[in-house]
């Protein structure tokens, strides 16, 4: 390699500004490329984590279930499932075997109960008395009913002695007991004998010793020995996955292996007892498969919908590098001409620029990749990175770096060819590109995207709870912002071209600003385009992401009615004074009268606002509205008929006010009355406890107070939030890209002034010496840069806000749950954008004026 | 000694004509329209010695030099170099000729050298471009710049830099050195040193074509081609 090329990397040191600009351009380019990969991967993992959080952890793997089994059959099923499970990587089997609910003998007393065994059960029970793991563990409620003491032996002495009394299980919303809600909890509201707490035996084999069937509800306890032909047991096989899958790939692998295991079990295990209908075939489930499929769709959607802006950002970055190359050619023109005259061709000279700028470019790439990794929590949802993501990120960044080097080399080659060979191909290409109506193309695309959004189905597809927005529709807001940016830049270009015909010397600052802008049309247009894109995407990204988050919270809150809610027994509902103090202070009791066409809420005005979810409603106003209701009066909700209505147990009731939506009711037809409107509260049988406390704390407090409760709900799990989150994640990344573009726009503004520093200094210094007031000069710079930045910010904000307002309701995955998602309060964001814009303009204007103040005209002219 | 050549009687390349230009015209496209820089140039330039392109500013000297240096192509007419028509030659072959046979010295001394390389490295780079062996010390001796091989370019005076530029042509073994106003940015003493170098190179058998309106150069020239308004005077 010849010396000029070999020494090129060192030559870069002669121009620190070019090096700095190359590093920054490459950093931003690599950041965008790397962040796009990391964001999509994180979105997939976050979707999986979300699904894991909504599913029981033992439902991540396949489940097998068979009823009315004999003990030997149970053993056969468990052994087969254990062996086959291991073959497919499910090493940790969790077997559960329960008798039916029936009379369980203890001390001659026969309360309802069921006997059971579960692998690892003793590790997940709260012991109140005793604790020896070799005996029978009895639930507290049963122990009280049957006066069970430690050492007692149940079922006519066939059970091992009682060694512990444990606290009844009530919270099965997550954790070890999550899959066992129907088997281990008592539904106090379901009626006696329908459910029962479980008396756990220490070993599975202990169940074999029971010689009396317990699944004989409603009959006197018979003393009939169990035989092989007496089916009695419900057997459930789960597998505990460890670690729980945290990526789409890991989850997909688990569900794939799960399906293989199911297929295998269907082949190798055939129930031998066919006496009963429900014991003929093995019931199986691979419940997590659907969740994984939804998570994959979410990841694909996020990736597809952020792709257009990512590509635009990458193109902006590569154009930035091309601009760096053009600037480099200008600075190195003498050297290039010399090498050209010595016989070097465009390709060799392109290689010269690549060799000189490769190191800064690669440094920028490394920094960009590092920044993308370090700042992941800022722009991407929390989620583990699947194996291969980092190598993929590095590969993509390398590809972009190579593309950057190619752009540098190609631009230099074309530029030198144009300069020294007199070929105007790039200029012609530029003219052709300039005349392509890009804004029309993007406008048509935006319209097509809007049509997709507007014509989306109004009901969820089968198997989904919410409406999914397709990726094409998600591109609508971005396409609108791009269209506005392109349209405005074209108008500005025409305006600046026409400005040569205008003279505004009566307003010198304005005239100077206009002339300077017109003289640097190229850079002004570039800054305007990137600026509008930046502010527009930032606004639209933040707006839609916030709106979706708010919509999810609002709809979940309205659906549940409170932060957490549980069904409580009628006795507690009628007399809430039995509630523990902490619960009472943060909760309210609501009576329910549910009919097919309407729902009536019977609320307590005194406590309603301390427990119900009110969203952005004023608590005082709600309290006053409820307190104003007298006997025989009700508030109608949404479209419920007004006037006098008949309500069971309350008689004729007059509607006195109306609300558009109400907690729990949403926008469904319904009425709200106070407890005083029901003459006899004992007529009500259905009550819920609405609380602002977290669900686990509410459950714990109620358990401790011994208050029966059932069917708990919490806002965090009320709705499948994934469709909301998919939109949120998409537009959070859009906002992050907007931030990157904003940095690009700000740097471009600084550079545009810096590149013209000498020219500005000469003209400014001469003008001031010819009598131009310094104040006018300053005003001209502020006006020039302020017009550019102000136009970018205003157009970007306007496009962003309007598009957000139009898009948000169309993105709502559950429009039937009111209120429909709407534009959030964007005033703070807009204010911050304007303040930052003003600060950048002030700083850059100051540097421009400073270069004039410090200029020595003589030296400048001499050069 | 000086011989004015402004004839159009040579229609065929002769054995002693290094260049032959026949009806050469060069147009430039500008925003204001097409500008004709030179037209109707028909001239022969013999090998060896010093040929001076003279004329006022804007007469087309630099353009003609660029045509001779195979940097610009004629819009009309033909150019022969060593008997080969080079006006329509492909870029690759024109580059090959520039690489091996031609050297160009521009007006500004700093434009002729690579400022991030030392004096010696500049000569070496020039030699490498033409695939010639490194003769740095020998060339520096010839230029009267011994011991400066490791100096930075900025340590040389303008005159020394311009001499070094001619030295680069020498280092690459060029048979033709085309110089565009090589003394215009130098003081008198420095210009004298450059003229000395030009004279010495011209006598050594290298063909020197200099575009200049430095009156001191005219007596040194073997041939003078005068241009006015883009045409031979």
UniProtKB/TrEMBL annotation, chain A:
Keywords: Membrane, Transmembrane, Transmembrane helix. The chain crosses the membrane at residues 307-329, 357-378, 390-414, 435-453, 473-496, 517-540, 729-753, 782-806, 826-849. Coiled coil: none annotated. It comes from the Bacteria. The keyword Membrane applies. This is Putative ABC transport system permease protein. It comes from Labedaea rhizosphaerae.
From TrEMBL, chain B:
SUPFAM superfamilies: P-loop containing nucleoside triphosphate hydrolases. The keyword Chaperone does not apply. Keywords: ATP-binding, Nucleotide-binding. GO terms for molecular function: ATP binding; ATP hydrolysis activity; transmembrane transporter activity. Residues 19-233 form the ABC transporter domain. GO terms for cellular component: plasma membrane. InterPro entries: AAA+_ATPase, ABC_transporter-like_ATP-bd, ABC_transporter-like_CS, ABC_transpr_LolD-like, P-loop_NTPase. The keyword Nucleotide-binding applies. PANTHER family: IMPORT ATP-BINDING PROTEIN (PTHR24220). This is Macrolide transport system ATP-binding/permease protein. The lineage of its organism: Bacteria, Bacillati, Actinomycetota, Actinomycetes, Pseudonocardiales.
């Amino acid at each position: 390699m010849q010396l000029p090329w070999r020494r090129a990397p060192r030559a870069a040191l002669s121009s620190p500004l070019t090096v700095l600009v190359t590093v920054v351009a490459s950093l931003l380019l690599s950041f965008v490329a790397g962040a796009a990969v990391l964001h999509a991967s994180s979105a997939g993992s976050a979707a999986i984590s979300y699904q894991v959080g909504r599913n029981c952890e033992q439902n991540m793997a396949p489940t097998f279930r068979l009823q009315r089994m004999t003990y030997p059959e149970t053993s056969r099923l468990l052994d087969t499932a254990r062996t086959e499970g291991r073959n497919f990587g499910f090493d940790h089997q969790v077997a559960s075997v329960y008798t039916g609910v029936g009379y369980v003998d203890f001390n001659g007393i026969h309360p309802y109960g069921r006997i059971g065994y579960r692998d690892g059960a003793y590790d997940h029970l709260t012991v109140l008395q005793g604790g020896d793991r070799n005996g029978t563990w009895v639930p507290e409620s049963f122990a009280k009913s049957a006066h069970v003491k430690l050492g007692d032996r149940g079922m006519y002495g066939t059970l091992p002695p009682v060694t512990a009394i444990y606290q009844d299980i009530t919270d099965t919303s997550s954790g070890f007991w999550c899959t066992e809600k129907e088997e281990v909890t008592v539904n106090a509201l379901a009626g006696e004998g329908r459910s029962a707490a479980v008396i756990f035996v220490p070993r599975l084999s202990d169940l074999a010793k029971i010689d009396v069937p317990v699944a004989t509800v409603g009959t006197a306890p018979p003393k009939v020995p169990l035989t092989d032909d007496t089916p009695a047991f419900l057997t459930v096989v789960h597998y505990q996955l460890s670690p729980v899958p945290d990526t789409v790939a890991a989850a997909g692998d688990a569900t794939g292996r799960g399906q293989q295991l199911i297929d295998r079990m269907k082949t190798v295990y055939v129930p031998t007892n066919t006496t009963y209908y429900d014991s003929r075939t093995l019931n199986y489930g691979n419940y997590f498969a659907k969740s994984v499929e939804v998570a994959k769709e979410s990841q694909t959607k996020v990736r597809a919908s952020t792709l257009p802006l990512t590509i635009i950002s990458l193109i902006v970055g590569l154009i930035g590098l091309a601009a760096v190359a053009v600037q480099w050619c200008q600075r190195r023109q003498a050297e290039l001409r010399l090498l050209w005259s010595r016989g070097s061709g465009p390709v060799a000279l392109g290689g010269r620029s690549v060799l000189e700028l490769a190191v800064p470019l690669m440094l920028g790439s490394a920094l960009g990749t590092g920044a993308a990794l370090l700042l992941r929590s800022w722009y991407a949802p929390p989620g583990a990175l699947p194996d291969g993501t980092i190598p993929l990120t590095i590969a993509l960044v390398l590809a972009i770096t190579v593309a950057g080097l190619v752009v540098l080399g190609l631009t230099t080659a074309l530029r030198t060819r144009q300069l020294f060979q007199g070929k105007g191909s790039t200029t012609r290409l530029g003219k052709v590109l300039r005349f392509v109506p890009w804004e029309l193309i993007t406008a048509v695309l935006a319209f097509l995207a809007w049509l997709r959004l507007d014509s989306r189905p109004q009901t969820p597809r089968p198997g989904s709870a919410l409406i999914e927005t397709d990726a094409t529709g998600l591109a609508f807001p971005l396409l609108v912002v791009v269209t506005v940016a392109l349209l405005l830049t074209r108008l500005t270009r025409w305006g600046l071209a026409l400005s040569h015909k205008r003279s505004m010397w009566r307003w010198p600052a304005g005239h100077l600003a206009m002339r300077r802008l017109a003289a640097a049309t190229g850079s002004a247009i570039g800054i305007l385009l990137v600026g509008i894109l930046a502010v527009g995407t930032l606004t639209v990204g933040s707006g839609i992401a916030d709106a979706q988050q708010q919509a999810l919270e609002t709809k979940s809150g309205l659906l549940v009615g409170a932060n957490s809610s549980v069904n409580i027994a009628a006795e507690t509902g009628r007399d809430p004074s039995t509630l523990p103090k902490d619960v009472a202070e943060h909760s309210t009791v609501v009576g329910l009268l549910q009919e097919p066409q309407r729902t009536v809420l019977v609320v307590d005005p005194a406590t309603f606002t301390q427990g119900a979810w009110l969203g952005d409603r004023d608590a005082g106003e709600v309290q006053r509205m409820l307190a104003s209701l007298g006997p025989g009066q009700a508030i109608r909700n949404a479209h419920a008929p007004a006037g006098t209505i008949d309500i069971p147990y309350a008689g004729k009731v007059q509607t006195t006010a109306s609300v558009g939506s109400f907690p729990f009711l949403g926008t469904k037809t319904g009425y709200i009355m106070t407890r005083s409107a029901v003459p006899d509260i004992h007529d009500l049988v259905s009550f819920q406890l609405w609380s602002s406390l977290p669900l686990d704390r509410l459950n714990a407090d109620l358990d401790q107070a011994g208050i029966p409760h059932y069917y708990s709900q919490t806002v965090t799990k009320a709705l499948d939030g994934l469709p909301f989150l998919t939109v949120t994640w998409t537009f959070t990344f859009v906002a992050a890209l907007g931030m990157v573009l904003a940095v690009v726009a700000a740097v471009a503004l600084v550079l545009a002034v810096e590149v013209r520093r000498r020219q500005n200094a000469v003209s400014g210094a001469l003008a001031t010496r010819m009598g131009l007031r310094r104040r006018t000069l300053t005003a001209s710079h502020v006006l020039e840069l302020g017009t550019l930045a102000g136009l970018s910010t205003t157009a970007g904000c306007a496009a962003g806000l309007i598009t957000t307002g139009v898009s948000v309701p169309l993105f709502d995955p559950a429009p039937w749950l009111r209120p429909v998602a709407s534009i959030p309060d964007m005033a703070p964001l807009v204010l911050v954008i304007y303040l930052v814009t003003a600060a950048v303009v002030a700083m850059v204007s100051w540097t421009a004026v400073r270069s004039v103040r410090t200029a020595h005209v003589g030296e400048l002219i001499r050069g | 000694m000086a011989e004015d050549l402004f004839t159009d009687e040579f229609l065929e390349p002769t054995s002693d004509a290094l260049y032959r230009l026949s009806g050469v015209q060069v147009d430039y496209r500008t925003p204001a329209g097409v500008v004709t820089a030179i037209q109707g140039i028909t001239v022969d330039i013999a090998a060896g010695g010093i040929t001076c392109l003279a004329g006022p500013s804007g007469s087309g000297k630099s353009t003609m030099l660029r045509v001779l240096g195979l940097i610009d192509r004629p819009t009309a007419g033909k150019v022969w170099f060593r008997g080969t028509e080079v006006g329509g030659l492909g870029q690759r072959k024109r580059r090959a000729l520039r690489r091996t046979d031609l050297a160009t010295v521009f007006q500004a001394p700093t434009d002729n050298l690579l400022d991030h390389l030392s004096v010696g490295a500049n000569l070496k780079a020039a030699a490498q471009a033409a695939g010639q062996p490194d003769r740095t010390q020998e060339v520096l001796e010839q230029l009267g710049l011994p011991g400066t091989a490791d100096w930075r370019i900025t340590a040389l005076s303008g005159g020394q830099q311009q001499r070094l530029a001619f030295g680069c042509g020498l280092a690459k073994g060029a048979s033709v050195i085309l110089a565009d106003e090589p003394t215009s940015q130098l003081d008198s003493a420095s210009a004298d040193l450059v003229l000395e170098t030009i004279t010495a190179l011209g006598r050594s058998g290298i063909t020197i074509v200099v575009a200049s309106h430095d009156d001191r150069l005219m007596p040194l020239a073997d041939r003078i081609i005068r241009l006015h308004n883009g045409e031979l005077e």
